[in-house]
Amino acid sequence: MDMKDFINKLKQYDLNFIFTIVGLLVFGVIHMVGCIMSFSWLSMNYMLFCYVFIVIMFLVKYLFKNIKTSTEYLLLAILYIVLLIPLIVTLGETIKFKEPPNLIFDWVIYGYALFAFLKMGFAIKDLIKHKNTEKETFGWLGIVYAAFTMYMLENALITTFDTGSDDTMYMEMASLIAIAVLNLYLISKYFVLYVKEKNNNKSTHI
Fold it and tell me: Could you please report the per-residue DSSP string of the chain?
């Protein structure tokens, strides 16, 4: 098999989807082990975020394959509401406790950086090139996940190298609030699409 055939074979698979699931599993397991070794609310929230995100990724895949009505948009809005829960809990924990996540290995910080920037790049590409498609939806999911991973990178760096000033805590809070606002925008976006699609379906049956 030459390189061209190998590349064509790879194109049969959704490599972005596989890459995301593998990354979520790896970071989820790292934080689960960290919680077992030394409990941290921040690590537990990120572990739950990873596992909830995996479930959401597979549910979105299922929705696009099996549900082609306006209900699809409503379910997407609900999934983003579910995803908002660990974000809000993490914000609360950031305000109450200035603790670092349990990373087990120091190099995990660099893993955050690499994974976050790769995911952000893939997500932006999907948003630009694939409007109103399944890939655009996964692009928005990728933006949310990449942004939260960048927050974890920011938190790890600040708690490792900063002396604990209030300014850095405000910066972390601002990052989480920005991610939560993005989530709220996506909830509104899909709820509005649901209402529009439902009204269009009603008008076509009149």
Answer: --HHHHHHHHTTS-HHHHHHHHHHHHHHHHHHHHHHHS--HHHHHHHHHHHHHHHHHHHHHHHHHH--STHHHHHHHHHHHHHHHHHHHHHHHHHH-------SSTTHHHHHHHHHHHHHHHHHHHHHH-TTSHHHHHHHHHHHHHHHHHHHHHHHHHHHH----HHHHHHHHHHHHHHHHHHHHHHHHHHHHHHHHHHHHHHHT-
As given in the structure block, the two tokens for residue 21 are: 């699931």
pLDDT of amino acid 70: 67
Question: Which has more pLDDT, 30 or 134?
Answer: 30
Distance in angstroms (rounded) separating the CA atoms of residues 64 and 132: 12
- Letter for the amino acid at 203? S
Q: What is the arithmetic mean of pLDDT over 165-180? A: 78
Tell me the CB-side half-sphere exposure of residue 45, using CA atoms within 13 A.
23
